[in-house]
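Quick one, probably user error.
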């Protein structure tokens, strides 16, 4: 493809450090090919309301790789195939507006879309590819649960922030002989909890892939006390589950997987520890702190590599594919293949085994 192209890019799903770096890389790589680049605001909203489309130039993206968030905005409630729309009676109903998106895409004479997002956003991109839209996906999630790639950008930053928080909690926990229970993000994958917990010298790590027995957790804390360690750090993934139980969700959270809001497991675990051991236990939810701020060097570089690779994929006509890291190379993986796999922590994997060798309890 040597012709002058007109491409667009959007960012969907939750925000993550590195999104702006992808936008910068796509813009610069396209500009250096003398292509036109446009940003679609708020996921696919800009292709429903074309006032939300902005031109991207080197001047507009200069230096944004170091900035968190996304200059294009994002949403996790903007699926054009199931868009909430008010009917004549004022009631909200789900409508398929994907044909309108396709019409606007063609009317604006775009040659390709770079869709940046996690599994939900890339599933939408795959459905548009099936309708004839030339799409290249870029995987993004701090949870690191996207199939087809060794790692997603945003994950390293989230782990770094969580690890720094755990490091800081050691001194206050030790000063008061307290148990500090730290809740981190990750949905139904325990990668953030596992990596930050081991790096932060936690005593207990609870992840969704290993259902926990609270009695085992308490036994570990009491054993520590017998050996002179009167304080403890417990790191728990938001999707961790007790044996025979289910995930803890925020009050009023209902609906499908995309709508359930996980949260509250740290408070539950801290309460059980106090009730069963009498130890002073406090909970802390890191929440969206893990998504904010400047991306780490690793995430910044990975995002730039992903963005540049997406432009090369367009140049080669490799659509309905996703760029992916398969160390040390950036490769292209069919979207259908990547979406078939949701990554989880392997309970028998090396990282979990490292934690066990260090004496960390996983509640099993």
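Nope, works fine. Designed sequence:
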């Amino acid at each position: 493809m040597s012709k002058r192209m007109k491409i667009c890019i959007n960012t969907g799903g939750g925000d993550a450090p590195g999104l702006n770096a992808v936008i910068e890389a796509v813009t610069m790589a396209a500009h250096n090919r003398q292509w036109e680049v446009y940003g679609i605001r708020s996921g696919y909203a800009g292709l429903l309301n074309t006032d939300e489309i902005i031109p991207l130039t080197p001047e507009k993206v200069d230096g944004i790789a170091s900035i968190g968030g996304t200059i294009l905005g994002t949403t996790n409630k903007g699926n054009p195939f199931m868009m909430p729309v008010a009917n004549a009676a004022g009631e909200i109903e789900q409508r398929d507006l994907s044909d309108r998106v396709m019409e606007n895409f063609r009317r604006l004479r775009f040659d390709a879309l770079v869709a940046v997002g996690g599994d939900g956003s890339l599933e939408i991109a795959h459905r548009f590819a099936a309708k004839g839209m030339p799409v290249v996906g870029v995987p993004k999630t701090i949870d690191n649960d996207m199939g087809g790639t060794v790692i997603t950008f945003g994950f390293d930053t989230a782990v770094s922030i969580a690890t720094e928080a755990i490091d800081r909690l050691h001194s206050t926990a030790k000063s008061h002989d307290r148990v500090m229970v730290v809740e981190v993000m990750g949905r139904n994958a325990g990668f953030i909890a596992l990596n930050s917990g081991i790096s932060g010298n936690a005593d207990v790590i609870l992840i969704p892939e290993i259902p926990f027995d609270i009695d085992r957790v308490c036994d570990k804390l009491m054993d520590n006390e017998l050996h002179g360690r009167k304080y403890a750090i417990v790191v728990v993934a938001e999707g961790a589950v007790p044996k025979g139980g289910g995930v803890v969700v925020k009050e009023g959270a209902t609906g499908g997987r995309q709508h359930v809001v996980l949260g509250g497991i740290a408070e539950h675990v801290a309460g059980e520890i106090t009730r069963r051991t009498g130890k002073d236990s406090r909970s802390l939810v890191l929440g969206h702190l893990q998504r904010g701020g400047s991306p780490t060097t690793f995430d910044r570089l990975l995002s730039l590599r992903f963005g540049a690779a997406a432009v090369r994929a367009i140049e080669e006509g490799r659509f309905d594919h996703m760029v992916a890291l398969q160390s040390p190379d950036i490769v292209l993986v069919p979207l259908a293949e990547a979406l078939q796999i949701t990554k989880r922590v392997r309970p028998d994997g090396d990282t979990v085994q490292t934690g066990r060798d260090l004496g960390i309890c996983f509640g099993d």
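The chain has two domains: 6-153+295-327, 158-291+346-357.
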